[in-house]
Amino acid sequence: MARRQSRQDPYGDLQAEQEPPVVAPPCWLCGRLTGKTVIAHHPVPKSRGGRDVVPMHPICQQMLIANFTNSELQRHGMDVEGLLAEPGVRKFVDWVAKKDPDFTATLTKKQR
């Protein structure tokens, strides 16, 4: 009795050729390439009418959430240079620049 399907995949070569390489987008805050986990972050919080979404590392988003209120993030808006002018943010970005794209750590919350 003949086999209905061959053991070799006649279309296997086509699938491998057509897949473009995946390029990781850079993080909106620190500028490093993102790793496996990419967060879609709203620079202006959704509760404040924000619709734009930017790619970020999870640790960068945690730092923003821990150090800024929604009102402060709304004031800065899409201006990343305004956020980087803050000494705490600049210190964090300089520190995380040497880390792996998939680096995670627990961050302390701001005392409010």
Calculate the terminal CA-CA distance, rounded to whole Å: 77 Å
Largest sheet: 2 strands, antiparallel
Could you tell me the strand content as a percent range? Answer: 5-15%
Helix content: 25-40%
DSSP E strands, number: 2
Radius of gyration from the CA trace?
A: 21 Å
Enumerate how many helices there are, as a single number.
5
Q: Could you say which overall geometry the principal axes of the C-alpha atoms support? A: elongated
Quaternary organisation of the protein chains: single chain
Low-confidence stretches: none
Structural class: mainly alpha
Major sheet strand order? 1-2
Q: What series of H and E elements makes up the topology?
A: HEEHHHH
Task: Determine the mean pLDDT.
Answer: 84
Protein name: HNH endonuclease
Write a concise synopsis of the structure shown.
This is HNH endonuclease. With 112 residues, the chain is mostly helical.
Fill in the keyword field for this structure:
about 110 residues, about 5% strand, mainly alpha, elongated, two-stranded antiparallel ribbon
Structure, explained:
It comes from Sandarakinorhabdus glacialis. This is HNH endonuclease. The protein is mainly alpha-helical and 112 residues long. The chain is 35% helix and 5% strand. It has five helices and two strands. The longest helix has 10 residues, at 58-67. The mean pLDDT is 84.
